[in-house]
Amino acid sequence: MDKITISTFQLFKMFPDQESARSYLESRLWPKGVQCPHCGEAKRIGTRKGGFYRCNACLEDFTVRTGTIFERSHIPLHKWLYAMYLLVTARKGISSLQLSKEIGITQKSAWFMLHRLREACDDDLAELRGIIEVDETYIGGKESAKHECKKLKEGRGSVGKVGVVGLRERGGNTIAKPFDRPDKATLHGAILDHVAVGSMIHTDDAPVYSGLDGLFYQHRSVNHSAGDYVKDGVTTNSIESVWATLKRGLYGVYHHATHDGCLAAS
After folding, report:
1. What is the C-alpha separation between 261 and 88, in angstroms, rounded?
2. What's the predicted TM-score (pTM) here?
3. pLDDT at position 122, please?
4. What pLDDT, on the 0 to 100 scale, is given for residue 2?
5. What's the pLDDT at 146?
6. DSSP at 251
7. Which segments in the chain show pLDDT lower than 70?
C-alpha cells in the first residue's frame, strides 16, 4: 500500500466482504501460488469450496488461515483487516470495547483479536543505527490521585512510578526499556545493548549522558534548561513525542500497564 494512509471509505471498497479479503491475504501469503503450510508442496494442490485446499502430497486440508493469527477464528477475514487498520492508525491505541463496536463483534472476540495482532507485531530488537535520540521518562499514577492507603508519602515526581529509557532511531524504530535506577551505568548500558557502534547519540544535557562521546559513539546534547530544544539539528523531540503519545494512550485507553523486558515499536 501507499505510504499515505488510505481512508476508511477506500478500505471498505477494497474489502467489502470475506471473499475479497481472502483473495488479498492469499496473494500476500502465497505470491507465487498456493503452497501447503504443512509440507511446503506447491504443485500438487487441489482446490475445494469456500477457500479450502487439499494437498495431494501430504493429504492435509488447509486455508489461508492455517498457521497464521487467523487460525481457529470464526471472525470474517474482512473484519480482521479492518481491525488491523484501526490498530495501526489509532495513535493512542484502541480498546477491545471500542473495536467490538466498530466491527460488530463481542468484546471478548475483540480482546482475542487485539492479542493476536499484538503477538504478530512481536519485538524486533535489531540494533538501532544512524542518529539516535535518547531520553528517559517515568510512567505510573500520580501520588495525589491515589487512595490514602496506597500513597507512599515519599514526595512527588517519580515516586511510585516506573522509569523507562527510550531510544528512537531518527526516521526508524523505537526501543523502550524499564530501569530501576537512572544512573550512568544503567543508561549507558541500554545504549551499548541496542545502538550500533559509530552512531550519533542525541540527548538532553543531563549529567548521566556525559562520557558517551569517544570510542564507541558520537554524542551531541541540547540544553533544555536554557530553553533550547533544537540547536544545529540536535534535538530529542522525536523520543519526547513517543512519550507524549504513549501517555495519552495509557490515560485515555489502557489505564494500566505492566512491564517486562524491552518494548520495540516502529
Report:
1. 23
2. 0.61
3. 65
4. 45
5. 57
6. I
7. 1-4, 122-125, 141-160, 215, 252-266
Q: What is the DSSP letter of 240?
A: H
Q: What are the start-end ranges of the H helices in 140-232?
A: 184-194
Q: Where are the beta strands (DSSP E) in the chain?
A: 45-47, 53-55, 61-62, 131-139, 162-169, 174-179, 200-204, 218-222, 230-231, 234-235, 263-265
What pLDDT score does 106 carry?
A: 95
Q: Three-state SS for 56?
A: coil
Arch. (CATH architecture) of 131-265: 2-Layer Sandwich (3.30)
The three cell numbers of residue 8 are 476508511
Domain ranges across the chain? 8-120, 131-265
The full DSSP string for 87-123 is HHH-TT---HHHHHHHHT--HHHHHHHHHHHHHHT--
* Residue 171, number of CB atoms within 10 A of its CB: 8
- Between the CA atoms of 145, 147, 151 and 157, what dihedral angle is there, to the nearest 10 degrees? -10
